[in-house]
Design a protein that fits this description.
The complex is a heterodimer. Chain A has no helices and eleven strands. By secondary structure, chain A is mainly beta. Chain A is globular and about 40 Å long. Chain A starts with a strand and ends with a strand. By secondary structure, chain B is mostly beta strands. In chain B, strands 2, 4, 5, 6, 9, 10 and 11 form a seven-stranded mixed sheet that branches. The chains are: A mainly beta, B mainly beta.
Chain lengths: 108, 116
């Protein structure tokens, strides 16, 4: 079967750095997405990795290792507005498989 | 600006009633999707469409139907609402993956449905 695992919840301090991990077991792979979802709102696209390595986009970076079935989202200089759920999704055969999401709580 | 909109945003209905959730996008995307989101679960795919007159079942399609008569709209119908269908429903659209780029999904604001 297809499976994506993420921690359910994480807590971090404003101004700090946090890494949210995602591991996957799927029968194929055409890319990995990270989305941000604030409470009561729609998911919004953050990043896309299809090759191994690190993709940096401002305060957010996403890493992929296809051989390990592993990705992480790195958030730097945390702000209170980063309090949200972060969803990992793997695409294969033109379909997306979603993790349950990681709720990130930012404390002052 | 292009957008994707859902209506109604909130709906309360009774068991057995037929309910239709509307989704309209102005991105001119070929691909459209309906998901439901419940606590403890990832987004689960209900139905999807890759173009006009094309519809496909997702992993949780029982009790739901869709139709695609034009590029902009993909309404979701619950034929006979059940309490298990109480959920938040998201419509999304995306460009063709083959056209290059990530082909990321653009989501509507969501429709919260309660079935009593």
């Amino acid at each position: 079967g297809q499976n994506i695992d993420q921690p359910t919840e994480m807590t971090a301090t404003e101004g700090a750095i946090v890494q949210i991990n995602c591991t996957y077991q799927t029968s194929g792979f055409n890319g990995l997405f990270w989305y941000q979802q604030h409470a009561g709102e729609a998911p919004t696209f953050l990043s896309y990795n299809v090759l191994d390595g690190l993709e940096e986009k401002g305060r957010f970076s996403s890493f992929l290792s296809r051989s390990k079935g592993y990705s992480y989202l790195l958030l730097k200089e945390l702000q209170m507005k980063d309090s949200a759920s972060y969803l990992c999704a793997v695409r294969f055969n033109y379909q997306l498989i979603w993790g349950a999401g990681t709720k990130l709580i930012i404390k002052p | 600006d292009a957008e994707i909109t859902q209506s109604p945003r909130h709906k309360i209905t009774e068991t057995g009633r037929q309910v239709t959730l509307a989704c309209h996008q102005t991105w001119n995307h070929n691909n459209m999707f309906w998901y439901r989101q419940d606590l403890g679960h990832g987004l689960r795919l209900i139905h999807y469409s890759y173009g006009v007159h094309d519809t496909n079942k997702g992993e949780v399609s029982d009790g739901y139907s869709v139709s695609r008569s034009n590029t902009e709209d993909l309404p979701l119908t619950l034929e006979s609402a059940a309490s298990s269908q109480t959920s938040v429903y998201f419509c999304a659209s995306s460009p063709l993956f083959r056209q290059g780029g990530a082909g990321e999904l653009f989501f509507g604001e969501g429709s919260r449905l309660t079935v009593l």
